[in-house]
Design a protein that fits this description.
Domain XdhC- CoxI: 15-81
Structural class: alpha/beta
Organism: Salinicola socius
Order of helices and strands: HEEEHEEHEEEEEHEHEHEHEHHEH
Oligomer: single chain
Number of helices: 10
Domain XdhC Rossmann: 169-311
Protein name: XshC-Cox1 family protein
Shape: elongated
Largest sheet: 6 strands, parallel
Pfam family, one: XdhC_C
Radius of gyration: 22 Å
Helix content: 25-40%
Number of strands: 15
């Protein structure tokens, strides 16, 4: 499934190239319950045609109606939806949450097309950029930023939106934990790729919406399947799969690398990776082992939950003691 942000920018480019003004909108902040996270995008035309979502359907009808009525004519504006919005549309979200939305009205000129092309290339690329917007001056530019951290940051009139390739999870090897891990990650919007050369293991692995690769995970990882928004997890307890995957994973820009096993098993694996894999201490330190948050997990589903939660922790730039 195509990354939703990429679908939004594809539509924005198509409409802008056709000479139509567009409204590119981003969720800046959520308060209380909300079905869409900060950074979520929507693009719309004056006739109400749109791609993407701001709230999962709670506010879109009102928002698109206001565009049709001639609202949001300023180049940049911030609108609040939900309870407590004093100067913004009083639309109550069924979930009881509040959304702050950046509305960026773009005219179909050369500057807009260049801006959208950079967004498009970034979403298809290997690393993230930060889209920096000054609400007071209207200036918009792209700057380098770290890969991990919040998708949206605001300091007064300065808004910073992190954009980049879709989050990807490579699962090295099939096990009972792998299935739950794939299901959780897919639900959270990850592109999920499962690698296992064993035909019998693949035959019994049934998860919709994931990509299956019938090769050794190490070969797939080493062939350039990762970018800076990739997490790699090895979940089989089989050193022939897990260890080789880790040796290749530490040579990639993946933001999360982890392998399943007890503390004692992890200590033995670290010794093997140094002795047989030739990894140094810096490479070993990149590997989360034991993998996942310490939730005292027992069942495959609980272990998978701990793994995916830890992946999100690292992506959000949170240390363990902040949880």
């Amino acid at each position: 499934m195509q990354h939703l942000d990429l679908q939004v920018i594809d539509a924005a480019l198509e409409w802008a190239n056709a000479g139509e003004p567009i409204w590119l909108c981003s969720v800046l902040a959520t308060f209380g319950s909300s079905p869409r996270e900060p950074g979520s995008m929507l693009v719309a035309k004056a006739d109400g045609t749109h791609v993407g979502s701001l709230s999962g359907g709670c506010i879109e009808e009102d928002f698109l109606g206001r565009i049709a009525e001639g609202h949001f004519d300023d180049a940049l504006s911030v609108v609040r939806y939900g309870e407590g919005a004093d100067e913004s549309p009083q639309v109550s979200l069924p979930c009881g949450g509040i959304l702050d939305v950046l509305v960026d009205r773009l005219t179909p000129d050369a500057a807009t097309l260049t801006h959208l092309e950079v967004l498009h290339a970034t979403l298809l690329g290997q690393r993230s950029l930060v889209r920096r917007i000054d609400l007071e001056s209207g200036r918009k530019r792209f700057v380098e930023g770290g890969e991990n951290g919040p998708r949206v940051e605001r300091d007064g009139q300065i808004i910073q939106l992190r954009v980049g390739p879709a989050l990807r999870l490579i699962i090295a090897g099939i096990s009972p934990v792998s299935r739950f891990c794939a299901e959780f990650a897919r639900t959270l919007g990850f592109e999920v790729i499962v690698c296992d050369p064993r035909e019998e293991a693949r035959r019994d692995f049934q998860v919709e919406g994931i990509e299956m690769q019938s090769v050794l995970p190490s070969l797939f990882i080493g062939a350039g399947a990762t970018h800076a928004a990739t997490a790699i997890v090895a979940l089989t307890h089989d050193p022939r799969i897990d260890d080789l995957a880790m040796i290749e994973a530490v040579r990639t820009p993946a933001f999360y690398i982890g392998v399943m096993g007890s503390k004692r098993t992890s200590e033995k694996r670290a010794e093997r990776l140094k002795r047989s894999g030739g990894l140094d201490d810096d490479a070993i330190s990149r590997i989360q082992m034991p993998i996942g948050l310490n939730l005292d997990s027992k069942t495959p589903a609980e272990i998978a939950l701990a793994v995916v939660a830890d992946v999100l922790r690292v992506r959000r730039g949170k240390s363990r003691h902040e949880l």
